[in-house]
Amino acid sequence: MEKINLKALWIEELESFLDKLGEKKYKAKQLAKWIYNKGVTDFEQMTDLSKELRRKLSEVAYIGKLKLTRKQVSKIDQTEKFLFELSDGKRIETVLMREKNRVTVCISTQVGCALNCIFCATGKSGFERNLSAGEIVDQIIAVKGYLKEDEKVTNVVIMGMGEPLLNYENTVKAIRIIQSELGLSISAKRITLSTSGIAPEIYKLADERLKIKLALSLNAPDDELRRKLMPIAKKYPLSEVLEALKYYAKKNDIRITFEYVLIKDVNDSEEQALKLAKLIRGIPCKINLIPYNPIKECPYKKPDEETLIKFRDILYPRAPAVTLRRSKGEDIQAACGQLKAGM
Ligand code: SAH
Ligand code: SF4
Questions:
Q1: In the chain, how long is the greatest CA-to-CA distance?
Q2: Which of 70-74, 176-180, 253-257, 292-296 comes out lowest in average pLDDT?
Q3: For labelling, which of 19, 264, 270, 271 has a CA lying 20 to 30 Å from the CA of 105?
Q4: What pLDDT, in 10s, does the model give residues 7-28?
Q5: Which residues contact 266 (CB under 8 A, 6 or more apart)?
């Protein structure tokens, strides 16, 4: 019989697994805490379980673990990029960012991405497969092992490789594990999911009432340009996506974040800034402006400093909150849109 990977199961599944073993269901919580909260992979370390149960578990189950194949540290800002190998040999990237008293882990949800946005390295590499909930969560558990002694993970952003809402079930399950006290114990307001705008799944996510923050990769002030930059916009026009976002904001009582990658001579004009301000009028939101990070597959450039500032100054105070983000870990290709795991 093939052994079962417990770092894929959450409470109800652990309960039914224990039930089949002839064990009491309440032990599922103890087991979950060891696997996800303490990050233990050896049953022998689970000291509050009986010796007999530990032996039984090791006969029928194991606790999967990502294999670190490379770790790079940025010389500019201490950002770290982890390349992990999955059990089938495929590779993903995870990024650790430090800022004041914040330690943020940026996690992937798919190997590659099928959506092929023209400015994104992940998109260029094509889609290979979805990550399991265990593989999504395990990125944080693994990175925790490399923190300095006085550090802990304070924030999680689901903004790495892949479109999280096209791996819906596994991503939602992973978020539940990340939030739970038995899991990573990171509160909803410190978790942000970024999507390219899969409207039906945004409604579904809203109804889960997870109360996590939601970010939309907007990148253009109108459908015409957006369709050129992000092919998925042909399927879900802005009017539909914005309606879905309003629903999400209302149901979860949060502000939406709009991410706008600024690309020289593509979407950085004054006219486009004004149009953008108009587009999002009436939506409780903030805007993150991200200067384009050059990737070698694309000819685009980032706007000069003056253009960036001007764009920001047109938007604010027309939009309620605007930040011009400085990208992290550019020297190690760890910044937004640069992840491709050597694919
Ligand atoms: N697929 C999801 C989440 C991962 S992409 C999404 O698209 O939202 C995370 C963010 O990186 C997106 O906001 C995307 O617009 C941005 N991004 C992609 N390529 C980039 C690049 N070359 N420079 C800067 N940001 C980029
Ligand atoms: Fe996929 Fe997001 Fe990159 Fe677009 S920006 S290709 S949706 S990862």
A1: 70
A2: 292-296
A3: 264
A4: 999 999 999 999 999 999 999 9
A5: 225, 229, 300
Do 65 and 36 touch, CB atoms closer than 8 A? no
User: Residue 342 falls within a domain, yes or no?
Assistant: no
Q: Which of the following is catalytic: 93, 128, 201, 259?
A: 93
CA 128 – CA 12 distance, rounded (Å) = 29
pLDDT of res. 161? 96
State whether 51 and 199 are in the same domain.
no
Q: Is the pTM of this model over 0.90?
A: yes
Query: Mean pLDDT, to the nearest integer, of 294-298?
Result: 86
Do 157 and 10 share a structural domain? no
Of 8, 278, 51, whose CA–CA distance to 137 is shortest? 8
Query: Do 23 and 158 share a domain, yes or no?
Result: no
Catalytic-residue membership of 106: no
Structure confidence by residue, pLDDT tens digits, 305-323 = 999 999 999 999 999 899 9
Length of the chain: 343
Ligand 1 and 15: CB distance under 6 A = no
Looking from the CA of residue 113, the nearest atom of ligand 2 is: 1
CA of 339 to the centre of ligand 1 (A): 10
Protein residue closest via CA to atom 8 of ligand 2: 162
114 belongs to a structural domain? yes
